[in-house]
Amino acid sequence: MSLRQTIKRHFKIISLLQNRPMSFEELQNEISMDPDASEDRLLTSQRTFQRDILEIASIHQIVITSDKSRKVYYIEDNYEDSIAQRLRENYDIINAIRLSKGVGESLYFEQRKALGTQRMADLLKAIQDKKEIKFEYQKFWDASFSKRIVQPIALKEAKNRWYLIGRDKKDDIIKNFSLDRISSLNITDKSFKHIEYDSHLAFKDCFGIINGTNDKVSKIVLAFKVDQGRYIKSLPLHHSQKLISQTENEIRFEYKLKPTFDFVQEVLSHGSDVEVIAPLSLRKKIADKLKAAIARYK
């Protein structure tokens, strides 16, 4: 059996058990509905399924447990980490694209510029090998190009973009570079020493890609209109989001983060559907920006 077939079967099992607990027989019945079930040998014996469970735990870091009283299998709550979850989601998308062929225009994608993800493999290798990189970079604000020599540290996703975090040799400052604005990338033979920089810690209390080095973490309270609040409840703005109250008219959430430019822009994007309750400094900043926006229409 090929590795491709095994991985596809793994993802199929994970995808089904994400929906609800199932018995082995129910899993086999659901898998049999896949058009490629026979060709890709997705249907298995109980013995192979038990081996799949062990491999899924080892490879995908997802634990599948059995409830013997109900004779069903299920995924342990809160076990799937962000990387495993993203892998599964991407597989679901790829599989949906494959299945949509010949079914007409059944999938609609946003029209957007390429994200520069074709450079991710090279950048990750440079990070792993601690090799300096050279590239041309186009700034967002003035569209000018500049040549950069950077010591790469990590890659970070924010608002559907990918960014390189690295130390710019020009001034030895750690900066963020959007991958879609990098061109003429070259991995040099020049090595650099380990940089003491914890990317996860640096962005833990931030929203987006601006880490707000000079900003302090604040307790922020936002009140959303009920309809928008339900949406925010299902898709949190930040990992620190905490529901603190809910009425017929509004839903309030608390956040602990740095109120950087990225977060201010996010709050403004919700218009009249949100009100900043605390802190007063952020409430005033948002109010001033809304007043300035209204002034442009007079």
Overview of the structural elements:
- It comes from Zunongwangia endophytica.
- This protein is an alpha+beta fold and 298 residues long.
- It contains nine helices and eleven strands.
- The strands form three sheets. The chain has a five-stranded antiparallel β-sheet with strand order 6-5-4-3-7.
- Helix 1 packs across helix 3.
- The N and C termini lie far apart (69 Å).
- The mean pLDDT is 87.
Structural class call reads alpha+beta
Count of distinct strands: 11
Q: Percent of residues in beta strands? A: 25-35%
Low-confidence stretches: none
Order of strands, main sheet, comes to: 6-5-4-3-7
Largest sheet: 5 strands, antiparallel
Number of helices: 9
CATH topology of the largest domain: Arc Repressor Mutant, subunit A
Q: Kindly provide the name of the CATH class of the largest domain.
A: Mainly Alpha
Shape: globular
Q: How is this fold's topology laid out?
A:
Elements lengths: L2 H17 L4 H9 L13 H14 L4 E4 L4 E4 L6 H19 L19 H10 L1 E8 L6 E14 L2 E8 L4 E6 L3 E10 L7 H5 L14 E8 H9 L7 E5 L3 E8 L3 H9 L4 E5 L1 H16 L3
Antiparallel strand pairs: 1-2, 3-4, 3-7, 4-5, 5-6, 8-10, 8-11, 9-10
Helix pairs in contact: 1-3
List keywords for this structure.
298 residues, alpha+beta, Arc Repressor Mutant, subunit A, SH3 type barrels, Alpha-Beta Plaits, 3 domains, 4-stranded antiparallel β-sheet, 9 helices, 11 strands, CBASS_pafABC_assoc_protein
